[in-house]
Amino acid sequence: MDEAPRQVHLRSGDTVWIRPVRSTDASELQRAFALMSDKSQYQRFLTGTPRLTDSQAAYFSQVDHVDHEAYVALSPKDETHIIGVARFIRYPTAPDDAELAITVADSWHNRGLATVLVRELGGRARDVGVKRFRAEMMADNEAVLRLLRSAGLTGETVTGHMASGYIELATTE
């Protein structure tokens, strides 16, 4: 799957490019990760991760576009710079469900980029038979909780410092 990037407009008025991740994106994913604040890295990976290793970057960039899909958002000023990623990874034991993960560069927070990425990824997930996203995040990550609630998060539970829930993906029948 090698779709060309397409422009999307964010609620902030900004325009970015979105396309499926490519196997050649590994080093750019590492660059984008290195630019994230420690807090953002921790909230995304739920652990202190000093850098994205070569093997992690390869895993995140070499997807099959069915059971593991990712979309990247690219800077309007430089179409090689990744500023956001949304991905799902289907659960082998529950193929109707997939884990949802979202990462947005700190300088792009609160512009609507994550909302657009989740919407785009949800459409792709429905196309390949995923019916529900599951999400797990830090319970104090209010921005992600707001985003996911606006996308239909239900079944929300909090255990210690972690929150989880799911988003039912509407079918287009």
UniProtKB/TrEMBL annotation:
Q: Which organism is it from?
A: Nocardioides astragali
Keywords from UniProt, A to Z, are: Acyltransferase, Transferase
InterPro entries membership: Acyl_CoA_acyltransferase, GNAT_dom
Q: What superkingdom heads the lineage?
A: Bacteria
| Residue intervals of the N-acetyltransferase domain | 16-173
State any single GO MF term: acyltransferase activity
Protein name (database record): GNAT family N-acetyltransferase
Tell me its EC number(s), please.
Answer: 2.3.-.-
Tell me if Acyltransferase is a UniProt keyword of this record. Answer: yes
